[in-house]
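hiii so um. not sure if this is the right channel but i have a protein structure encoded as tokens and i wanna go backwards to a sequence. like what aa goes where. can anyone help
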């Protein structure tokens, strides 16, 4: 057995448990080893029965000398076990767990951990954990508590990880040090093998912190090493489709002059950076970030025009069918007076695949679709579209130029860590005449008057309204509980806005159903759309001028900004109203900060400080990267790993570090599976 052993090989493990692990993308022993605890209980105080003090959290060990099964007046079944050690006797009670009667039989040696309580005149133990015999996995030490998902209990996860940790002692088990000694010593890092033991079963809280530091260091180092190697391999590539820019400058300028608006200085600067890349022998790999409405699509269209003038095809990939359709219409409109053919490739529709510009979804990377002369690939809002997928898309041409775009506010430190292999450009100016969205925090007392104001706006200006209900549970997928809450709010709002047409949108609907609702909303068939946060990033509904966010305190600042960006697409003044279920000082301060700030990057930076590791984007809404232990808000650690990487590439060859090479492959394989 080694790190790559399938979890199918876990001893004494049912098929159902294996299936549950696999549903969490835990397929190997090493995957399981990297399922880290989210908190710990300290049961390391081992006490004799006579020394127990009320309020202590302790572990006691002894012999079961009596077993009772009682029924209380309320019908509760109570299992009482009398435990004896060489200093005294104590009764320990469980409720409605009759299976324990088969486990703890008379003369059995058992350990119990929990809180010492007083019951009348007697001292008793409120048990939290228990076990029979040795070695101790659940009692008698600092015990890891794991997030319980897919019906897997923390106890089950603990037992399986304990088994894998017991294997690490075996020399054949290939968990070995991956970093050079100089990097370990310079950064005062704990040995990696020891770190895995300490993260799951800490010998002390001080060692736990050292283990966290070491494993976070490894994670960030691997991410940055992976990006560095991809960038290095791309730098060796040469384009077969080299673009000429100066030759077509006048034609590009002529097209710009026909636009009904003037390009911002920021758009001009970004175009200059892109065109400079396109003239080079090596393929462009640029990451373009810009607020909703800052004009990224115009930049994309002009870049595609340069590709067309050079005689090459362009592929533009969007994350969903509805966004691909929207881009398709935008490109048709932009090139209405040019003899440029626009194609479409989605799972449901394939049209003009020999066109000059083909807009599509993931269908573009299908093996069934081939293209003749791809010179440029543009990827829109593909946060989880990893380096391996980007490489796959690049194969559609002979090393075509690549432009990745996002409207999502990503702090610079995060972007440099996640997209280290890409050069960065930012559009940080909004076009002239774009009206800023007026944002207000609405206290409970003013909620009804806000509803009345919205009714008047719909009647006077035929405005359309988004109402966003939050996800109730922290999960990647919408739960039935969340959808039920959205449906309840929908029924409630139907009564409040009885004179208007409302529709409901949520994540359990089929794609076609969701798309139809969005298209009907865009076409003005109803006034108010009640939705969970599934409303697509980038959906363009110019007549939607009001965004109302229920329980706004449940969202991070970055996501609130994303939601606000669904309005303000047209020329009319737009508004965003924040309702909150709670009205404590911290929440009001946070929501008022959001209301006063329209800068997405600034809000994302603030989110990073407030929300902490792993939660900057909220797994349920964005999920840029599945960090297991590192924090993107730990700027010092990011800087340390960056310096360590610089030192490594200057002084060592990866070929001499086979275990690091294997770990890197493992990390990249995980990226492919995740994407």
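sure thing!! here u go:
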């Amino acid at each position: 057995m080694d790190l790559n052993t399938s979890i199918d090989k876990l001893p004494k493990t049912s098929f159902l448990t294996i299936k549950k692990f696999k549903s969490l993308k835990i397929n190997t022993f090493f995957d399981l080893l990297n399922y880290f605890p989210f908190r710990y209980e300290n049961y390391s105080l081992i006490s004799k029965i006579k020394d127990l003090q009320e309020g202590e959290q302790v572990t006691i060990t002894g012999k079961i000398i009596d077993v009772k099964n009682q029924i209380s007046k309320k019908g509760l079944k109570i299992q009482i076990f009398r435990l004896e050690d060489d200093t005294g006797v104590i009764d320990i009670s469980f409720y409605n767990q009759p299976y324990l009667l088969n486990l703890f039989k008379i003369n059995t040696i058992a350990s119990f951990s929990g809180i010492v309580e007083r019951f009348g005149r007697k001292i008793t133990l409120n048990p939290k954990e228990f076990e029979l015999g040795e070695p101790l996995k659940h009692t008698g030490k600092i015990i890891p508590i794991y997030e319980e998902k897919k019906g897997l209990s923390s106890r089950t996860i603990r037992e399986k990880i304990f088994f894998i940790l017991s294997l690490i002692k075996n020399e054949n088990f290939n968990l070995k040090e991956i970093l050079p000694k100089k990097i370990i010593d310079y950064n005062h890092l704990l040995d990696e093998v020891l770190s895995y033991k300490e993260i799951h079963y800490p010998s002390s809280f001080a060692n736990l912190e050292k283990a966290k530091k070491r494993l976070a260091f490894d994670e960030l180092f691997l991410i940055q090493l992976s990006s560095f190697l991809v960038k290095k391999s791309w730098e060796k590539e040469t384009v077969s489709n080299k673009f000429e820019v100066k030759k077509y400058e006048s034609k590009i300028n002529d097209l710009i002059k026909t636009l009904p608006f003037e390009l911002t200085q920021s758009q001009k600067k970004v175009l200059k950076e892109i065109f400079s890349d396109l003239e080079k022998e090596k393929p462009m790999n640029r990451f373009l970030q810009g607020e909703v409405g800052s004009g990224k699509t115009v930049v994309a269209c002009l870049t595609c025009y340069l590709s067309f003038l050079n005689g090459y095809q362009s592929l533009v990939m969007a994350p969903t069918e509805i966004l691909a359709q929207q881009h398709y219409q935008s490109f048709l409109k932009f090139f209405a007076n040019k003899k440029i053919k626009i194609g479409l490739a989605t799972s449901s529709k394939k049209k003009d695949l020999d066109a000059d510009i083909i807009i599509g979804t993931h269908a573009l990377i299908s093996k069934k679709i081939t293209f003749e002369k791809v010179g440029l690939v543009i990827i829109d809002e593909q946060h989880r579209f990893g380096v391996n997928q980007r490489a796959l898309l690049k194969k559609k041409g002979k090393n075509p130029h690549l432009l990745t775009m996002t409207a999502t506010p990503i702090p610079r430190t995060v972007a440099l860590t996640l997209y280290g292999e890409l050069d960065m450009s930012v559009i940080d100016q909004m076009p002239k005449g774009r009206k800023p969205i007026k944002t207000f925090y609405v206290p409970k007392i003013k909620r009804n008057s806000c509803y009345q104001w919205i009714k008047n706006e719909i009647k006077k200006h035929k405005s359309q309204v988004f109402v966003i209900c939050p996800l109730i549970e922290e999960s990647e997928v919408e739960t039935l509980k969340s959808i039920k809450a959205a449906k309840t709010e929908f029924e409630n709002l139907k009564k409040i806005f009885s004179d208007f047409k409302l529709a409901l949108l949520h994540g359990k609907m089929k794609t076609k159903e969701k798309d139809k609702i969005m298209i009907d909303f865009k076409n003005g068939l109803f006034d108010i759309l009640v939705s969970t946060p599934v409303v697509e990033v980038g959906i363009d509904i110019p007549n939607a001028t009001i965004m109302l966010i229920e329980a706004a305190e449940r969202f991070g600042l970055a996501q609130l900004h994303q939601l606000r960006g669904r309005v303000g697409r047209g020329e009319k003044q737009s508004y965003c109203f924040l309702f909150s279920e709670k009205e404590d000082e911290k929440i009001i301060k946070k929501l008022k900060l959001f209301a006063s700030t329209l800068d997405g990057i600034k809000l994302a930076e603030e989110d990073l400080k407030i929300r902490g590791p792993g939660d900057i984007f909220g797994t349920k809404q964005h999920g840029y990267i599945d960090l297991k232990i590192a924090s993107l808000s730990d700027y010092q650690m990011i800087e340390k790993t960056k310096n360590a990487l610089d030192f490594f590439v200057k002084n060592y060859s990866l070929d001499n570090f086979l275990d690091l090479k294997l770990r890197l492959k493992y990390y990249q394989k995980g990226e492919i599976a995740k994407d």
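oh and The radius of gyration is 30 Å.
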